[in-house]
């Protein structure tokens, strides 16, 4: 900066980088910094670039109504992803969320026929919580791996779905307010989107700011140290499964309400995108750590990508492939950048 | 026994970004010599090793091997000149066989494109034989103990044709019975005419094993010592720290206070057998013994991390039925476990988060953690414990062993425990930080709290403790005042030998 000031040239040593001027030489340190930045912010930058590209290609992409549609379509899956993220944080899995959500939607519709929307809502959430408790108890008390336990429980729910109402969708005799949650709006903002973001904020606060959240991260980070620090790992893991189950139930309810029926396969296909969103999230802002904020970015990214391809005229079939590419690319770049930075 | 000077280092220096890490250091290593290299973290040991291994190029000075000046552009050049390194973390592939690991990264013997595995096996067996080790060369590394894995590393050094093997803290992660194997192997290498540069923080090890040693401090040479001089532990510590030994921490022999914790007839799976124990306030109770004597198991029982098969524990006069560490913490017991990395910390977390983990509720209101309170606590502990970190948000795993251990101690102090169990608190910690930890332990009992101090370092245990218990095969076999107990006595008790000096020492 002050190259003209004689004193600064006298004292400055030629071989040292000068943090004062902010121009550190292009040494290994700056590469490392760059790589750290890339591993943390690469996904976000990619996301923004994607929005810009689609926005330029298709005028309808960044309009308020399109954005609202994308958010609304992503809301139910977004809620599922948040629950999954909590379980993943603890180093566990929940493969049952798609089935749980589907079952919750069926049960919500079935119950609403006789007991109104309040009954339907309660049934969906209680079902989710119940599945979570079963998952959690199998994993923590019986010591079965979460992968197997939740896969099995998911299968059981699928079987039950086939039996319940003969495997056909639940429609007719539904109370008029059944679709209120799924189709209502507050001004231009759909209720679904408001609910999703409310869940996200609550989950963020729980994980990042509360004692419970810190304990969850501890059990996920080092279960032995957590136990020897007085944390009851079994209870914490059980709680995570219950949270995941309840949020799957809520997601299923949201989906059924927007569809206006209980469909026996409605949310089954949500499992893999929810995983994809969580893993993209783990490659965002933090170094390989699952977290709620990252997962939201992941869900948005997948949602806007699919929508962007459709509005720019790409055949719908390719959107799933594109989502796969984004998942692999995001995780690869972040992992690679972290490795280079750690060298 | 030792021969001519094989390696001669003169005036070697190295700076990183203008900061000297090594400055004008000399080192002579003779053929058939075990040469200790000692100093605190940051003393320049690693830099010197890396220069000799061809990783760093020296900024100044010369290196001679058999009176020929040499320079190593890379690690392969150092290997070719006869220098190989046994790293602290074993450089092995767990799923490959022993012989495959010995050849890892080297060109294996071949016929055309085909690898001659039997020749690899045979050569590998020869190397292991030279080390005096019997090991199935087809065994996978994952099935080996830590000491055996180190032997595989050494076999590789021999295969490289090493004349000088640099062993970087070879025993840091080994138990006492495994350390024996490393000792025997080093003796064997020496008898074979090879030279060893032996780096360790364990001074008793250096004193037992080394023919000579070089002490570094702040990147400079402090001096060289021969085997006899190495036996003067206090002088050694003074050279390492640059502090007079009279200023070293030692027990002040105060009157013990009331009983804080008492155990009667405690037993657990034959590892702990019928143990009676009283921990007094204001007193450090040391437990000496070898790894496997049941000391850590006893610590876990007292903390509530394991449930005793028999016996009872009372804390503050009321029964303590151990069911979980949570219960122990609630009753005011703290356990600093022996394995810092695996049992006491979350490496990728910040110092702040690790610091408050055992007492989270006291940093929260209404279930929400108050980060400001966490940071304030860190600011206090940073000064009080002398933690040298970049700040509360530094990543735990980036800290040196000593600073990590101080953070873990701070974590337990935050619980306001009044019975603190320290299991191997100075393992993998440099001598300077060891002293600070000793001081902390004394400060804790000066506060009227009780400390149980478990260490494999007998000298340290005797110096820090007021009372000394010796454990062997799960039983407490001796209980005496630490001040009137000698090192030889303690060692004999650990081994279970008759106490030959008992009558002669006052």
Automatic annotation (TrEMBL), chain B:
The keyword Repeat applies. Residues 7-243, 249-498 form the ABC transporter domain. PROSITE patterns: ABC_TRANSPORTER_1, ABC_TRANSPORTER_2. Keywords: ATP-binding, Cell membrane, Membrane, Nucleotide-binding, Repeat, Sugar transport, Translocase, Transport. It comes from the Bacteria. The keyword ATP-binding applies. GO terms for molecular function: ATP binding; ATP hydrolysis activity. SMART domains: AAA. This is Ribose import ATP-binding protein RbsA 2. It comes from Pseudonocardia halophobica.
